[in-house]
Amino acid sequence: MSIAISPQAAMNRAVSQQAAMDNAVRHLVNDYSPLSTRIGWLMLASIWVEAWDMYGIAFVLIFIREQFHPDPLLLGLAAAATQGGAVIGALVGGWLNDKLGRRVMFLSTMIVFIVLAAAQAFVTSVGWLVVVRLFLGIPLGSDPPTSITYIMECMPKGKREVMGNRWQFMLASGQAMVLAVVTLFLFAELPHELVWRAILGLGAVPALLILLMRRKLPETAMWLIRQGRIREAKRVAVQLYNDNLDMLPDEDIVLPKPRPTAFLADIRKDSLRWRATLYGWIACTAQASQFTTFAFYIPVIFVMVGVSSVLGTNLITLGLFILGSIAAWTGPLIMPKIGQRGIGIAGFGLSLVGLLIAAAALYSGHIAILPFGAAILMWGEYWANNNVMVLPTMVAKPQYRGTASGIAYMFCKLPSFCWLFLFPSLFTAIGQANATLFVCIFPLAGLLAAIFILKEVYGFDQD
Q: Which CATH number, 3.40.640.10, 1.20.1250.20, 3.40.50.1000, 1.50.10.10, labels domain 21-452?
């Protein structure tokens, strides 16, 4: 015989369950796990792989062109295709992140990437390379939002921002490593076809290692709680935190599934969270645009204006990416002192100064100054990039966190695709100096957004 439960009793029970889940999530945010730092680095490792693939092609396009002789439009698509696929991956992957869970996504994206990265080494035409790289971009666009989301949910406030902001260190070090390997191959005088095939295919090797190291990581307790999977959440909390979350019941709870479209309505309810999200979107667009215009094409620009030979330009560019790695490492270290807003102002401010110096060097013909402007730009770029993904992910509620991260990453990848494809044409149409001066509008937009839109959110804990 079943016992009828009055509507008021059912409502009281739902409120009690919701309060228990809120308390458990807040408890997790403010707790510390000795494993969380290791997990954070393991999540960020996949961004190193993304850097290898997405930017490795910049250093071997010249060899692909000399073998297949494609028209400029097709060659531009080969460079930009991964970014185009990443737009799809960021949006769909962010949604699936919330629907299926973080663990399913970080395992599946690595598996797909391994297969497609290896396939690049065996393409027989630039057309096939474009197709493979377009599909390859989907897991590459999906994985960074998953990684950042996982970090936001496995580390306590204050520490999670610092770790999340280190994604740019992994990006810069990956770019530096791939350039170092290209330069080593050139010193060894390997056949150019072997160089480009090896560079594109080698990304599968670290991806396989990451997959093997990630395979035992559990789902985040925070996501499980927000899904009502309480028993599994308790098991994960014991595994990661040695805490069985006594404030939660010992049974699962049936909860309504949040709609992805509800994220935008929810984020607008809180001015602080909305401003941080809006800044993240603007900053993502600004930093991606300034990098995939002038910074991405630094090797081409330096050779065209006579800074150095191809090999010398590779060495200079390697030095710039090493400098970027140092900047990306120091940014999170000083962020607790100057805040998320301070690192944005400093980063975009330095980027603007560097581009103005580079433009002045091109206008005046003082080419020797050009690398110094590029160096200032590179330092500012990696400071400005530090938190553009972290802020929208951190301030979103856990049930929308994957969606929030995916949307933010879309604002990185869409302009990257457009500018990788279009900047060479702009460069040709208006000239080197004018094109460099044009790029200044992007760090200026990021700087103004950091000053007038972003409010300080370091230590934010509204989960």
A: 1.20.1250.20
Q: 2: pLDDT confidence band, cut at 50, 70 and 90?
A: very low
- Mean pLDDT for all residues in the chain: 87
| Model confidence pLDDT, tens digit, residues 20-52 | 777 776 666 565 444 567 888 989 988 888 888
- Residue 117 near residue 136 (C-beta atoms within 8 A): yes
Name the least confident of 18-32, 33-47, 227-241, 299-313.
18-32
- For tokens 């409502």, what's the residue? 11
Q: Tell me which residue of 30, 25, 86 sits closest to 55, measured CA to CA.
A: 86
Lowest mean pLDDT among 44-48, 229-233, 300-304: 300-304
Encode 384-414 in three state secondary structure: HCCCCCHHHHHHCCHHHHHHHHHHHHHHHHH
What does the alpha-carbon distance between residue 403 and residue 223 come to, in Å, rounded to a whole number?
Answer: 13
Whether residue 10 is predicted with pLDDT greater than 70 in this model: the reply is: no
Q: To the nearest 10°, the Cα dihedral for 167, 173, 177, 183?
A: 130
- Give the pLDDT mean for 145-151: 91
Domain residue limits, the chain: 21-452
pLDDT of residue 12: 58
For the stretch 193-202, pLDDT in tens is 999 999 999 9
